[in-house]
Amino acid sequence: MKEAFQKAIPLLSKIEEAGYEAYFVGGSVRDCLLHKEIADVDIATSATPEELKEIFSRTVDVGIEHGTIVVLFNGVPYEVTTFRTESEYIDFRRPTEVQFIRSLNEDLKRRDFTMNAIAMDKHGQFFDPFQGREAIKERVIKTVGNAEDRFQEDALRMMRAVRFYSQLDFKIDDTTRKAIISSSHLLDKISVERKLVEFEKLLAGKNRINALYALAETELYRYLPAMKQRNEGLRKIGQYDCFQLTVDEMWVLLLFIFEIEDHESEGFLKLWKLSVKKTKKIRQLLKWLKYRVDNDWIEEYLFEAGEGYISSTERIKNVLHNQSVDLNLNRLKAQYDLLPIKQRSELQVSGTDLQEWFHKSPGPWIKEKLEAAEKAVLYKQVNNRRDSLKEWLLKCNLN
Ligand code: ATP
Ligand code: MG
């Protein structure tokens, strides 16, 4: 058994000693069977959150209404979820109320895909009523129970199928795929926040190109924010070997391929409810990319963009030109390292200096002069030293 599970065995034992059942479940069991790194160990139990709080002294309520609490055990946080059913679904969304139950089997039955519905006890014994291990062996994504019914209950599961397709490169089972096509419109009811989580996981997956294509093929794209007109665009991504790009770089690639104008990009990203910070970064990168596809970098822009933006812009450009993603990165890094200054604050002249040297009160002229000095330093027309800058600025003022 993997170390992450080993470490949590005493936690399972403690729950069992109190008279309840406890198992490893979900993504961690699936990933372990796939011999993949496991991030978090998820635990399912017959004990209710209240009962767990009596067993463990250190707990945090994270989603108690869904039956999940975090137990801090030997300094490690574990998500422990009470067995539950989701009997009532309203408007194809997750139920507002969950029912706690004492049966593992019923808990596994409410899970989305057979590969995610496997439990493992502390001895490494599997409880796999839906043949999840077989699905993993056959590399197939298949709903637990009737696909159409399961998508009626919670339409996000369709999106999850495609994101697992991206992450795992499994095939989506034919019946499940057909049900996605016939139920795709139900995705309309799902909140943007939940769609975003799955979409970004999809963008990070190794099979992302096919997954984006699948969004187009299954019609799911129609019910994603700002995507109604993007059928062609999503298919076009297939031309680009983009699997090494980060999620933020993928957003930029999408906006570029969708031919989104600068003034439209904010609205596009807002519909996806991306954070202000992320929106700003993506829009900035898009601007640099548009510049870069037609021009080479010049000192001023290297300075303005900064190292992170330069390398991201270059990586996306390389993908668009079907070149190795790292092409030119070293050359540009060297060019950047040679810039005499990397930040405006490094310029050895300030607004106060200017007022003193020119005997003038503050005004827009200060910004102009500082920018001129900055440019001159970047192009090595003048040394970034206070005396040299003073001499240069006064001389320029005469001309
Ligand atoms: P990841 O490695 O990305 O975290 P995961 O399988 O752990 O993948 P989570 O979103 O963390 O996915 O969910 C944990 C488990 O909860 C899943 O494995 C699945 O059993 C169940 N689950 C999550 N979302 C749903 C859903 N919408 N419907 C049914 N079961 C779900
Ligand atoms: Mg998980």
Question: Can you walk through the features of this model?
Answer:
- With 399 residues, this protein is α+β, with helices and mostly antiparallel strands.
- It folds into 3 domains: 1-138, 2-Layer Sandwich (Beta Polymerase, domain 2), CATH 3.30.460.10; 139-239, Hydrophobic Seed Protein; 344-398, Serum Albumin, Chain A, Domain 1, CATH 1.10.246.80.
- It has 19 helices and 11 strands.
- It has helices spanning 3-17, 26-33, 49-55, 104-109, 132-138, 147-153, 156-168, 174-183, 192-204, 208-217, 231-236, 247-257, 262-271, 276-294, 299-320, 329-337, 351-358, 364-378, 386-398; strands at residues 22-25, 42-45, 59-63, 68-73, 76-82, 84-85, 99-100, 119-120, 126-127, 140-141, 171-172.
- The strands form 4 sheets. A 5-stranded mixed β-sheet has the order 1-2-5-4-3. A two-stranded antiparallel sheet has the order 6-7. A two-stranded antiparallel ribbon has the order 8-9.
- The longest helix has 22 residues, at 299-320.
- It starts with a helix and ends with a helix.
- Bound molecules: adenosine-5'-triphosphate and magnesium ion.
- Adenosine-5'-triphosphate (ATP) is lined by residues 26-27, 42, 111-112, 116-117, 154, 156-157, 201.
